[in-house]
Specification:
With 266 residues, this protein is of the alpha+beta class. The chain has helices at 3-9, 11-18, 22-28, 48-67, 97-100, 102-107, 110-120, 151-154, 170-190, 219-230, 233-239, 246-249; strands spanning 36-43, 74-78, 86-93, 131-139, 159-166, 194-203, 209-216, 252-260. Strands 1-3-2-8-5-7-6-4 form an 8-stranded antiparallel beta barrel.
Length: 266
């Protein structure tokens, strides 16, 4: 089955999954157009670069994105592992154009340029980051909107788990996307997860791949809910279907634990 066909056919199943949580259903109903998502990865060294980049996000970039009507914007740092000097930025938009033209638009925003001057115009001997990598994603039809957890509004403690699934071919990648629409959304909600987004990579490294994010109150909450998910008979049935065998459709998984920066809206 062609990818476009199976995604269209799966919308009804996705709608049923989303009715499990009314607050999520209000913003992720599959009759809404799918957002585009810009995911940026900032690699830095300890100390001054971390402070400079976080200040840039809080004082210049997020206010400018708000003026552009973009958001909610997620700003996160890696909490565990070797990449702890890494920040991630997630920017949703209704169309790809404002994301593709983002830096050009920002350069014409006088308030942004004034607030961002030390970061934007930094010299090589005082660079505020090592490198930036960007990926453009398209939200899944069955989960078309970014859905911040309730704790984002009150800046409550929370952990974001971001998982990236790479596949060896476009066909295998398409089957993994199909798997989410054939029941995996339902299983996530049944386990008590709060999904933030599911995105299919259009542009970026290591394509074909998809990325999704889940929000939890704590690591204990994360572990407890994943145990519920793993032991769900529905998951055991779905994952045992030969069409969706992980050895076939996913050949590498990146699993990141993130915490939000103070300025994050997710």
């Amino acid at each position: 089955m062609e990818r476009r066909q199976f995604l269209s056919a799966s919308l009804a199943a996705s709608a049923a999954a989303l009715t499990g949580t009314a607050a999520l259903a209000a913003t992720t109903a599959p009759d809404k157009p799918s957002e585009f998502l810009l995911l940026r990865r900032y690699t830095m060294t300890a100390g001054a670069q971390l402070k400079a980049t976080e200040a840039f996000f809080a004082q210049a970039l997020l206010p400018a994105l708000g003026r552009m009507g973009l958001g909610p914007v997620g700003a996160f740092k890696v909490d565990v592992g070797q990449d702890i000097y890494t920040y991630y930025l997630l920017i949703p938009a209704a169309t790809a154009q404002p994301l593709a033209e983002l830096d050009l638009t920002l350069a014409n925003d006088a308030a942004f340029m004034a607030a961002a001057d030390s970061f934007w115009n930094a010299r090589a001997n005082a660079a505020p980051f090592q490198r930036i990598e960007s990926s453009l994603l398209k939200a899944f039809p069955g989960w078309p909107r970014v859905t911040p957890p309730a704790g984002a509004a009150t800046h409550a403690k929370r952990i974001l788990q971001m998982r990236i699934y790479e596949s060896a071919s476009h066909g295998e990648h398409a089957r993994k996307v199909e798997m989410f629409h054939k029941g995996e959304f339902d299983l996530f909600l049944n386990a008590g997860f709060h999904p933030v987004f599911f995105g299919d990579a259009l542009i970026g490294p290591r394509i074909p791949n998809l990325t999704y994010m889940l929000a939890f109150d704590s690591m204990a909450d994360l572990e407890a809910k994943w145990n519920v998910f793993r032991n769900d008979p529905g998951w055991k049935k779905l994952s045992s279907d030969p069409r969706y065998g992980y050895d076939t459709i996913v050949n590498n998984i990146s699993n990141l634990y993130l915490v939000p920066l103070d300025c994050s809206q997710i």
